[in-house]
Design goal:
- The protein is mainly α.
- It is 74% helix and 0% strand.
- It has four helices and no strands.
- The protein starts with a helix and ends with a helix.
Length: 137
């Protein structure tokens, strides 16, 4: 999904150029395309490491919105940690999604909605794993 951001970036700037947002005598639009494409490639490895770390102690498939189980001790702290991480990332993704809708970046809107779904699925896997631990006790 993240690799699709590279052609989406090119489409966005070419679409804006066709729309007449840039003057023909203006500087090249290759600079923002290159910067965004390189940024996507730079964050590709940390994104995959994050996904692998969050899949470590999770149980998928899981219902998306389920209540958190009553936990104690280390398991409660772990679930709170992942809740905070996913909450911050989801809030950031929603803000970016709103800005993308305002700006009119067509393909990135769909990709950001997919990223939000990925974050919600990873959170559901964490909650489901903790729920299974509680039900086994």
């Amino acid at each position: 999904m993240a690799l699709l951001m590279i052609p989406a970036t090119g489409w966005y700037y070419l679409f804006r150029a066709m729309r007449g947002d840039y003057l023909p005598s203006a500087d090249s639009i290759g600079i923002p395309i290159a910067i965004q494409s390189h940024t996507v490639l730079l964050f590709l490895l940390p994104l995959n490491v994050f996904v692998l770390l969050s899949l470590m102690r999770s149980s998928l498939p899981a219902p998306m919105f389920q209540p958190k189980p009553c936990l104690k001790g280390k398991n409660k702290l772990e679930l709170w940690f992942w809740d905070i991480v996913f909450g911050v990332l989801l809030a950031l993704a929603v803000v970016v999604l709103i800005l993308l809708v305002i700006d009119g970046d067509h393909i990135m809107i769909v990709l950001m909605m997919g990223f939000i779904y990925l974050l919600l699925s990873l959170r559901a896997g964490k909650v489901n794993y903790q729920r299974k631990i509680v039900s086994e006790k």
